[in-house]
Amino acid sequence: MEQTSSQTTSSEEVAEAKETAVSDTFNTGQIFTIAGGHFVHDTYSAFIAPLLPLLQERLATNYALTGSLAIFAQLPSLLNPLIGYLADRVSLRYFIILAPGVTATLMSSLGIVNNYFLLALLLLAGGVSIAAFHAPAPAMIGRMAGRRVGTGMSIFMASGELGRTFGPIVAVAGVGWFGLEGMWRLMFVGWAVTAVLYYRLHEISAKTTTKPAGLAEAWPQIRRVFPVLGWIMLARTGLLISLTTYLPLYMQDEADASLWLAAAALSILEGAGVAGALLTGTASDRLGRRRVLGGLFLVAPLLAMAFVFSPGWMAVPLLIALGLTAISPTPVLLAVVQDSFPKHRALANGIFIGLNFLVRGLGIWLIGVLADQIGLTMAFVWGAVVAFLTLPGVWFLPKRTAVVKG
């Protein structure tokens, strides 16, 4: 009897070990399934920025209050380290599976609410769903990518950028089809994708290791890596927020563009970001993380200032160039995190995402206040100037040489 019980326990442990083992294999099907969920999820989470001009008009708010609506979707990022810590120990696959449907429901309902406080609560709930997806999903990708972590992160991040490319167009089209109040009808696509994710992933573990090391073991590396990453995030947040959150408002108020053109500008930027995300993570596998990041951090602020001061006919090529450079460092930074914490992938990713979203929240508020004081144009310029401070931070990141040949 005892022998049978022991054999059962042993078989369960072997099964779990097989389920959560990190191999050198690049699991293409599973990676693209999660990436597809990321695409749809971020299509809906990208509704906020293109709808800000309409929400500002409805609520009669200034730039700081209008932009601060996006902060409420960032606040639940405080939960990311906790979610990541849990994901290293128990499989949070259902967070990944359910998030597209839940996020679709909440973001498609923005037009129903006419009160600033209630709208903030709706965005706060949406932020919880966003956090629940983004903490375990990259760690799951990192486990499935084997030695090609940069490539896996590129695919994952490119799918998110593709979602943020389509998001503004889908949002504005939804307003055109159904009106702002009728956009809730768009939620059903998100639930269809949740059904597909359940079919494909409900038996796949989201755990990164069978026996994760203790938090005390990770703490020295956390203290070494994350202050540098925080420095880099903080320095580039003004540039990134100006482009990804305030661009539709800039196009309408400073460039006299229509709502459609303002949304199209954001889609052009994010569309180029898809190619950038695919290229940079893979390039960092071959050339090294720091070398790729240094080049991107040097070029992006120069392009941002060129966008502000160049004639209108240069807007499209400069937006494409900015998408390739300003947005694309994120897969490389995620790869740095995955490289640095092989035994705590989800925890480290949760800290990274949480820190990133907190810095973004601060950046949204600061750029909004600057815009109210000195105008959106000068706020964009200052965001670009401060972004040059990322360059010294690159050389304090952990070294990593290229490992993928051929």
Q: Outline, from the CA principal axes? A: globular
Q: Which CATH class is shown?
A: Mainly Alpha
Cα(first) to Cα(last) distance is 55 Å
Structural class: mainly alpha
Summed up, the domain count is 1
CATH homologous superfamily? MFS general substrate transporter like domains
Major sheet: size, sense and barrel closure? none
Q: Would you report the number of β strands?
A: 0
CATH architecture: Up-down Bundle
Summarize model confidence as the mean pLDDT: 83
Kindly estimate the percentage of residues that lie in beta strands according to DSSP. Answer: under 5%
Low-confidence residue ranges? 4-22, 401-406
> N-to-C SSE series?
HHHHHHHHHHHHHHHHHHH
CATH topology: Growth Hormone, Chain: A
Helix tally equals: 19
Question: What value does the Rg take, in angstroms?
Answer: 21 Å
What does this 3D model show about the protein?
This protein has 19 helices and no strands. It has one domain: MFS general substrate transporter like domains (Growth Hormone, Chain: A), CATH 1.20.1250. The protein starts with a helix and ends in a 12-residue tail after the last helix. Helix content is 77%, strand content 0%. The chain is mostly helical and 406 residues long.
